[in-house]
Specification:
275 residues, mainly beta, five-stranded antiparallel β-sheet
């Protein structure tokens, strides 16, 4: 019986020593920490451009694709609720008005990566898009990738005003077309009209403006003025003063066209563009 007691005590002591050793080792290196040491931390600083100095479209989601040259692909979606993959909390449409989104991803440093980002609005229109390379990565290191996203659209507005000699005339509808496709239109019932276009595609475009109305109080509604011009559409473009040609050969109608929040009818006639 004495010999059996000694053997049992030795086994118990050995078991306790083994458990303590395992617990101590677990405190030093957990499986998650060991894996992170073998990855590179890549923060993507995403700055979507504004569509106008005084106006921003509310974005529905931001889609981030991380593709390695070896064929691996990670996909993240960032919304008002947060991110699917980012290791730090990020949200779209921040309450403080900040447009910068800064997700953090853990990537395999043995591969080269391309980060592609696009944003969608409530209509599922792609408002911004862009891509960037991470550059060479190393295990356990941190890399910041700056990605300014240009906007594919600019928010414009136009103010139409009938010539002073058209007493009794009324505007009924004004519209803008870009490269032959109607971009925006609005109804009117006065001698002036205000048209807002949130989705004018940026770049060199042919813009056509049309104004419909009644030439007299009892006249039929018809096309009164129309004109087209080649313009550079951009969120930082200057305001244009355009003169639309009259359909009946009379004096043309002056229109101010530019970025939302930057258009007034205090027009300087010099530099006006007849269209």
């Amino acid at each position: 019986m004495k010999t059996q007691t000694i053997k049992t005590s030795k086994l118990a002591a050995l078991a306790l020593t083994t458990l303590a050793s395992l617990a101590f080792t677990g405190c030093l290196t957990t499986p998650e920490e060991s894996r992170d040491d073998k990855l590179a931390q890549v923060a993507v600083e995403i700055l979507p451009a504004s569509v106008s100095p005084t106006r921003d479209l509310r974005l529905k989601e931001m889609m981030v694709t991380l593709a390695s040259d070896a064929g691996d692909t990670l996909r993240d979606t960032i919304t008002d609720m947060g991110s699917l993959l980012s290791k730090n909390p990020v949200r779209l449409n921040a309450a403080d008005g900040s447009r910068i989104i800064h997700p953090l991803y853990a990537l395999d440093p043995a591969k080269a990566w391309t980060v592609s980002v696009k944003t969608l609005d409530a209509r599922d229109s792609v408002v911004h898009s862009g891509s960037a390379r991470t550059g060479a990565l190393a295990a356990g290191t941190f890399r910041n990738v700056a990605m300014p996203l240009p906007a594919r659209f600019a928010a414009y507005e136009a103010i139409f005003a009938l010539p002073a000699n058209m007493k009794g005339a009324t505007l009924k509808r004004v519209e803008a077309a870009v490269d032959g496709a109607t971009a925006c239109a609005t109804e009117a019932s006065a001698d002036s009209a205000h048209l807002t276009c949130d989705y004018l595609p940026v770049g060199n475009r042919t813009v056509t403006l049309s104004a419909y109305g009644q030439a007299s109080s009892n006249g039929a509604t018809r096309l009164l003025f129309k004109g087209a011009a080649d313009l550079a559409i951009a969120a930082d473009a200057p305001t244009e003063t355009l003169t639309l040609g009259a359909e009946d050969g009379d004096a043309g109608m002056r229109v101010r066209l530019g970025r939302v929040g930057r258009v007034t009818m205090n027009v300087v006639t010099s530099g006006a563009l007849d269209i």
